[in-house]
Amino acid sequence: MNTKATKRRAAIPKSLAPHFQEFSLRKLNVQRDALVIMQRALEYGDLAELRWLFEIYGRSAISEFVQQRGENWLSRRAFYFWRRYFKLQSWKRAPNHHLREQLWPF
Fold it and tell me: pTM here?
């Protein structure tokens, strides 16, 4: 396997850079920073960026992220979409999820 090609494929797409303003893209590691990368791509990614995400992490890892962390880490809109996409019947509930709309209704 060509490591140069693998590195190029694993590099975070530059088109996602606006969604990682507090990070240096060069310093993000696809293994170490997988959770934040998944969160930003699922929330803001376009079709090409999502294809990259699924190629790098695989469907099962992304589904597990949505099931275990989606309600806490994603917007209500994005969580609902990905929950339906993966046909999740159960997921880890956010603490005080019933207060979410009362505290910030957007």
Answer: 0.79
Q: What separation in angstroms does the CA of 75 have from each of 4, 24, 72, 100?
A: 35, 23, 8, 11
Whether residue 43 contacts residue 74, with contact meaning beta carbons closer than 8 Å, is answered with yes
The predicted-structure confidence for 42-66, as pLDDT tens digits, reads as follows 999 999 999 999 999 999 999 999 9
Residue matched to tokens 């969580």 = 79
- Residues 100, 56: Cα–Cα separation, whole Å: 32
The ranges assigned to domains in the chain are: 3-103
φ/ψ region of 96 (left if φ > 0, alpha if ψ in -120 to 50, else beta) reads left
